[in-house]
Amino acid sequence: MTDPEILRYTRESGDFSRMLESIPYARFIGLACDQFGDDLIFRLPQKEVNLGNPILPAIHGGVIGGFMEMSAAIYLMMSQDTVRMPRIVDFSLDYLRAGLNRETYAECRLTRQGNRVANVMVTAWQKSRSQPIATARAHFLMED
Amino acid sequence: MNDQIRRDRVTRFIDTLNQARELGLSVTEAGKGCLTLCMPYSDRIIGNPETGVIHGGAITTLMDTTSGSVILCALDDFELCPTLDLRVDYMRPAEPNKPVYARAETYKVTRNIIFTRCEAFQEGGETIANCVGTFMRIGKDATPKHYRDLITGAGE
């Protein structure tokens, strides 16, 4: 997914801008990432083109899925000791609340890292972490 | 309701979704309880710059949109049904520079829940991804009448 050189730079500097700039889909939805100590918080800024339901209005469920999916992949890349690229196998997404037209956040947890497969949990929220708008679970195949 | 009405309703519906417009989604085929949408290839949705393969997130949006819109092809009255969950299995990366299609069907419609199946594929190619989804029926009155009329074309 990402140039090993850029991955190395991101790990050393904690600056995700170069990595995210290099992935067109991340730019397309506006994904951002901030590092706090060892923790990563992913951010999806408010963006009109990301909307689905025009009545609420609400962020398109697919964009929330894409945001969480890419967050999980980046999180996983960053958590490896070596340069290994995750390839998504499956993705299971529960929508808990409408994602309103405002900034959205996500955090990830590595539930299980095997030799070849990793299981990642993702939680997304807006107003309060205690009121998630969606949770997701993904399996990735790790490639050297 | 005939297939032309189904096609028109879905076209009007996805035209109100900013993200679907941004991705350039269009209706390929509509029938009773089944629907195929097309997503053109674009440099802007690439997930891997080295290979030009589009990101799974765009496929997820295509499949979510198709699964949500196939409901318009299954019910006579327009009801906006929020997605409860989606499960996507990725079979293979989509080939660059070619559109991706998603074909969805409602395989069970109950009073409260609609169950959908969806397959993403490319012309002459194998399956890119499979998806199953569940949608909640909140009743047509949960959606404002002016929006329902816009989709069904009742205002015309």
Question: Could you explain the architecture of this structure?
Answer:
- The complex is a heterodimer of chains A (144) and B (156).
- Chain A has 144 residues and is α+β, with helices and mostly antiparallel strands.
- Chain A has a single domain (4-143), classed as Hotdog Thioesterase (Thiol Ester Dehydrase, Chain A), CATH 3.10.129.
- Helices cover 28% and strands 37% of the residues of chain A.
- Chain A has 4 helices and 6 strands, in the order αααββαββββ.
- In chain A, strands 1-2-4-5-6-3 form a 6-stranded antiparallel sheet, with helices on one face.
- Chain A is globular, with a radius of gyration of 15 Å.
- In chain A, 41% of the residues are buried.
- The mean pLDDT of chain A is 94.
- Chain B is of the alpha+beta class and 156 residues long.
- Chain B has a single domain (3-152), classed as Thiol Ester Dehydrase, Chain A (Roll).
- The interface between A and B is large, with 35 and 39 residues.
Task: Tag the structure with descriptive keywords.
heterodimer; A: 144 residues; alpha+beta; Thiol Ester Dehydrase, Chain A; six-stranded antiparallel beta sheet; 37% strand; globular; B: 156 residues; two-stranded antiparallel ribbon; 4 helices; 8 strands; 35% strand
Task: Outline the secondary-structure elements.
The complex is a heterodimer of chains A (144) and B (156).
Chain A lengths: L3 H10 L3 H6 L1 H6 L2 E5 L2 E6 L16 H19 L5 E11 L8 E10 L3 E9 L6 E12 L1
Antiparallel strand pairs in A: 1-2, 2-4, 3-6, 4-5, 5-6
Chain B lengths: L2 H13 L2 H6 L2 E6 L2 E6 L6 E3 L4 E2 L1 H14 L13 E8 L9 E10 L3 E9 L5 E10 L8 H8 L4
The helix-strand sequence of chain A is: HHHEEHEEEE
Strand content range of chain B: 25-35%
Secondary structure class of chain B reads: alpha+beta
**Architecture of chain B, CATH level 2?**
Roll
Query: Main β-sheet of chain B: number of strands, strand sense, barrel status?
Result: 6 strands, antiparallel
Write the CATH homologous superfamily of chain B: Hotdog Thioesterase
- Head-to-tail CA distance between termini of chain A: 12 Å
Indicate the CATH topology of chain A. Thiol Ester Dehydrase, Chain A
For the largest sheet of chain B, list the strands in their spatial order.
Answer: 1-2-6-7-8-5
Keywords (chain B): Hydrolase
Protein name (chain B): Thioesterase domain-containing protein
InterPro entries (chain B): HotDog_dom_sf (IPR029069), PAAI_dom (IPR003736), Thioestr_dom (IPR006683)
Organism (chain B): Marinobacter nitratireducens
